[in-house]
Amino acid sequence: MASYILRRLLLMIPTLLGIMLLNFIIVQAAPGGPIDQLLARFEGMDSMASTRLDVGGGEVVTRDESRGSRGVDPRFIEQLEKQFGFDQPAHERFLGMIGDYATFDFGNSFFRDRPVVSLMIERLPVSISLGLWTTLLVYLVSIPLGIRKALQHGSSFDIWTSGLVIVGYAIPGFLFAILLIVLFAGGSYWDLFPLRGLVSPNFEDLSTWSKIKDYFWHITLPVIAMTIGSFATLTMLTKNSFLDEIHKQYVLTARAKGASDRRVLYGHVFRNGMLIIIAGMPSALVTIFFTGSLLIEVIFSLEGLGLLGFEAVMQRDYPVIFGTLYLYTLIGLILKLISDLTYVWVDPRIDFETRES
Hints:
- The protein has 357 residues and is mainly alpha-helical.
- The protein has helices at residues 2-29, 34-43, 63-69, 74-84, 90-101, 116-151, 156-170, 173-184, 208-246, 249-256, 261-279, 281-289, 294-299, 305-315, 318-346, 352-356, and strands at residues 52-54, 60-62.
- It has 2 domains: 2-101, no CATH class; 122-347, MetI-like (MetI-like fold).
- It contains 16 helices and 2 strands.
- The protein starts with a helix and ends with a helix.
């Protein structure tokens, strides 16, 4: 197993490099780089300026020509390119970036004038809070519900809970968040929960118990909104997995030997039924912690990593874009390895090392 873990760790290096290279090429090819964004701010122009402009009559001017026509001093442009590192060839910039990222040096944000690491650390508690409580709530509800649906397949309980699950799956998380705001955050009906922020402005002045209540008071609606989609998917996945295992021969044999239903369920079916759920856990965690919380963070004004990455893409803030991408990719690869190791822990019959050899 040690050699398998070592090979997987070594395989992460080219995988990470390939993902970073592909995204580096895509981002560099996208119109409206950081310098154009900065000039657009100075001149009050559209921040999404294209690299080539049609000036009518079939005449097309390049970015440098358009800058000159706007009265921008070429020496000022050269200073900006040197400041942002664009005076170097693309391959040198990429190699330098990878060298810095190996030591988790993500540089400074172009537009915030702060280290990217400090920005990510500042936003991390919000994403962890949303992801942690959403994941906990999803698994605590979905797995028991999915098991009961499998045991009572075809019953009235299974039918009406399936209807609720399908409705929940059909409703996008951001739309459900808006509905919660309208109903419970002073939109049109009740004003029971706050609309924005993770804590109140006077949070530091509150007592310990009041801080706990204030924190959960603020996070209730965002977590419920994030839970709705993941809850439906995991519930049906759990039901189908356990339903498939219940009808296998080893279960019938165990029951024929006089084993109780509880013994059959938790002694035989549970391990095998949980395998497919464990396999999907890494992607589910990455989705819930990062990408899944993006619109929720925007709607509830929560300053998390998802919102940070989105703002960086819109502003062409390259250090923040690649810093968050590097972190997301590294976490995803590590979680995938942890998933495989958990596979072996749940079912010792699985041996990835033997399979690879």
